[in-house]
Amino acid sequence: MAHVSDSVFVAPCAFGRGLFAARRFAPGEAVLRFVGPEREDPRDGTQRESNLVQIGPGRYLFPDEPWVYVNHACEPNTAFFDDAQTLFAVRTIEAGDELFFDYSTSMLDDPWTMSCGCGGATCRGVVGEFASLPPSVQRRYLDGGMVPTFIRERISAAGAAPRDLRCAS
To answer: Of the four, 80, 85, 98, 137, which is 20 to 30 A from 29 by CA?
Structure first.
């Protein structure tokens, strides 16, 4: 176990390594802010590209360690509310809990996919961009404010139903 701050630490998990809460977080509390190099092109031909976080239209971030160890879950305990780089607790997170976010809530302009093995009751089996989520999941995230501003703005500007986002630039 490697403590990286008073708030989080890296430890072994079902996916290799994960980022865990070192203390209790209340719902709505900022948990972590992703930092790392930005780029416009999401692809670089390496395994690292699977760790991208989209932070705006045509803007992507490669999270530095330890932030790169936040794993995906279809039933996340953190989410982006406005800022596409800061994760907030969506429910109480106890010290020792692994931190998860739904990777699909951070991507809009990239038809990237990966298999999901989160094992949650509502596991979708595949992780893709926000537009690929089932409409009921999109609506739940949108109604809960659990997506970055750039995704909500795309929906608003297009007047699109969430499913129509890819063609609404």
So the answer is: 137
Which structure tokens are listed for 30?
A: 């900022």
47-51, 83-87, 97-101, 152-156: segment of lowest average pLDDT: 47-51
Cβ(79)–Cβ(137) below 8 Å: no
- How many domains does the chain fold into? 1
- Structural domain including 83 reads 7-167
Compute the CA torsion angle 50, 33, 40, 108 (nearest 10 deg): 70
Is 162 within the bounds of a domain? yes
DSSP character string of 18-83: EEEESS-B-TT-EEEE--S-EES-S--SSGGGGG-EEEETTEEE-PPTTGGGPEE-SS-SEEESS-
pTM for the complete prediction? 0.87
In a domain, 1, yes or no: no
